[in-house]
Each structure stands twice: as structure tokens, then as C-alpha cells.
Design goal:
The chain is built from 15 helices and 13 strands. The chain is of the alpha/beta class. The protein has 2 domains: about 160 residues, D-Maltodextrin-Binding Protein, domain 2, CATH 3.40.190.10; about 140 residues, D-Maltodextrin-Binding Protein, domain 2, CATH 3.40.190. Strand 7, helix 8 and strand 8 form a beta-alpha-beta unit.
Length: about 350
């Protein structure tokens, strides 16, 4: 009986050896966690300044990145020029805050093209310059900022009693602040004009109060911004021209064509708002790079959004909702950008 079972036993042993060898030769499959981890996109870091429109634009860009599979941390609030240093040092990945050409100096001082890159045209056709109320402009025939060299004209805009015109300007460190300071010297206005620098939004609120009280006002204006929806150009206020084009040397060799809009030389370069990002980040993330090149928001949409913020819808969840509404209102275009970026 033993001799009859031996072949069967040997066959079982052989089969077991073959099966063991087969299992040993197979590679252990990677864990599900490692597979998922290798396919995950990085969590991104961004920031914007206190300039209210940038919050809205940041959220729209963030929504697109989320659709493309990225996670984005809650945006930080950092003023420029320090925000450029953070981007260059890889403490941030990208931001919507590059204003061309006004921020060229900030960009170059942070390392320029070696560390940073600007992409796309997030908001085209930005206009900036000096505005005064239309009533005073027409009564005294004021059309050019140079006329404020006349102490009598300058005194019309004196809000603190020192005899000088009070010009509502920009936050310290902003590109527009550098240009205004340059203009005060170039147009010989130091003796008659005082540049009020501080929290721009608060200073504008004071100007609006004065306007409603029938007082003359003089302020730096940038469009897109809610002020253009409250004090409407050619209806409530008018743009002042400058005698000639002159900007800080580090902003480039600009001509009258570069600083003119609607037939007037406003003295400030026409502005394109672009996305700026860490160069190494872009090299590692071609999908995000393509998204940055495509997304674009009209200035008029930003004006309407910033007016909502001024009127009280200013919490982060409000601005996020505004951004989602903008995406829904531009869904077909938005989806086409997502599709193009996904194909990178």
C-alpha cells in the first residue's frame, strides 16, 4: 500500500515546491498609499496684499487649481515688496500681485528671472492716474496736475489747513507710491502738494465723505477698483493729465504712449496684472503653469465685485462665494481653460 501511494505523495511535494517558487518570484505590489501619494499634486501656498481686488482674483485662480487636482492653503496677506521675497525664497509658490510695469523693480530686487516668472494677463487694461471732482475741475478749468503749482489752485484741495493740496496717495511701499513721489519732484509740486500716505481704502473713504459734503477732492485712482463704481469718471470725477511722461528709472524707459489712455496722458503706465510664481515651482508643475497663462478676469467684473466688498460683503466666505458666482457666470470659458491646462 505504501508503494502505491508514493507517486501521489511525490506529486504533491513537487506541486507545493512549484507553487512556493512561483509566489517567491512575484514582486510584492506597492501599497495603495504609496500609489496615491506618488500621483498627488503638491499643496500650494499663495498670498495677496491688502488691495481688495486681489482677494477676489486669488479665489478665482484658487478654484481653478482645485479643479485641476491641487490643494491650496488659505492665502496669506503680505504686502509688497516683501511678498516677492517670499516667492523667490520658495516660502510661497505663486501670487496674483504682479502689476506690469509698476512692480518691475520689486520683481528684479527679489532675484528677477533667475528665481521668478510672470505669466498670462490676469486683468488687462488697468488705468491709473490723478482724479479730482468734476465740479471743481469745471469751475476752475483744471485739466492738468501741473496747475497745482499755483498756490491758489492747490489751496482748493487743502483738507488740513496748511495751505497745501492734500493728495490721497498709496500705501507706503506700493509701486504707485514710488511714481507719485517721483512726480512731485518731476513736476515741481513739492511746495504746494502734500502726499497723504496710509491705508488707501480708509483715505478714499474720507475723500468720498468730503465729496458728498460738496468739498473738492484730489486722489490717486486705479481702475479696477470700487472707487470707479462710486465716483464715476466723467460723471463725478475727471482724470487729470500730466505735462510730460516721467516715471522712476527702474520702471523702464516709458513714452507718452505707455502712459496715455483715452487720449489723455495720465502719467502712470497702463497696467497689466499678471500672476507671478517661483520659477522652480513652474518647472515642476506644467499644469498649474498653463492655468496661470490662461485665466483672465475683466476689469469691470472686478469693479462690481469690489463694490460688493465695500458695501459689507467682505468676509472670506463672501469673497469665496463671489468667486464661485463669477465662475458659474463664465462656466463655458472657465471649463475651456481647465481642459487646456489638464492636457499639459
Amino acid at each position: 500500500m505504501f508503494s502505491q501511494q508514493l507517486p501521489k505523495l511525490n506529486l504533491k511535494i513537487v506541486l507545493m515546491i512549484l507553487l512556493t517558487s512561483l509566489i517567491a518570484c512575484q514582486q510584492t505590489p506597492p501599497s495603495q498609499d504609496n500609489t496615491t501619494q506618488s500621483n498627488q499634486k503638491p499643496t500650494l501656498r499663495t498670498a495677496h496684499s491688502t488691495w481688495v481686488e486681489e482677494h477676489f482674483q486669488t479665489e478665482i485662480v484658487k478654484i481653478g487649481l482645485e479643479k485641476l487636482g491641487y490643494k491650496v492653503e488659505t492665502p496669506q496677506e503680505i504686502e509688497y515688496p516683501p511678498i516677492y521675497i517670499s516667492l523667490a525664497n520658495r516660502d510661497l509658490d505663486y501670487s496674483v500681485i504682479f502689476y506690469h510695469p509698476a512692480h518691475t523693480q520689486f520683481f528684479n530686487n527679489a532675484g528677477g528671472e533667475e528665481k521668478l516668472k510672470t505669466l498670462g494677463v490676469l486683468t488687462p487694461d488697468g488705468i491709473q492716474g490723478y482724479q479730482i471732482d468734476k465740479k471743481t475741475a469745471e469751475e476752475y478749468n483744471i485739466t492738468n496736475i501741473e496747475q497745482l503749482k499755483d498756490p491758489k489752485i492747490a489751496k482748493l484741495f487743502d483738507s488740513d489747513g496748511d495751505g497745501k493740496a492734500n493728495l490721497v496717495g498709496c500705501n507706503a511701499g506700493w509701486g504707485c507710491e514710488l511714481i507719485i513721489e517721483h512726480h512731485l519732484d518731476a513736476y515741481k509740486l513739492r511746495d504746494t502738494v502734500e502726499h497723504n500716505r496710509g491705508q488707501y481704502t480708509a483715505l478714499l473713504a474720507d475723500s468720498i465723505t468730503r465729496y458728498k459734503e460738496g468739498e473738492p477732492i484730489l486722489f490717486y485712482a486705479y481702475n479696477p477698483h470700487w472707487v470707479s463704481a462710486v465716483l464715476k469718471p466723467d460723471q463725478d470725477v475727471v482724470w487729470l493729465e500730466v505735462p510730460f511722461t516721467s516715471v522712476p528709472e527702474k520702471m523702464g524707459d516709458l513714452t507718452e504712449k505707455d502712459t496715455s489712455a483715452n487720449g489723455k496722458n495720465l502719467g502712470f503706465p497702463n497696467t497689466e496684472q499678471r500672476i507671478v510664481a517661483n520659477k522652480q515651482f513652474l518647472e515642476n508643475n506644467p499644469i498649474a503653469k498653463r492655468w496661470f497663462e490662461l485665466v483672465q478676469i475683466p476689469a469691470e467684473d472686478i469693479n462690481q465685485e469690489s463694490l460688493k466688498i465695500k458695501e459689507g460683503e467682505n468676509k472670506p466666505e463672501d469673497i469665496r462665494r463671489h468667486a464661485q458666482e463669477w465662475v458659474a457666470n463664465n462656466q463655458e470659458l472657465f471649463d475651456s481653460w481647465i481642459e487646456q491646462a489638464s492636457n499639459q
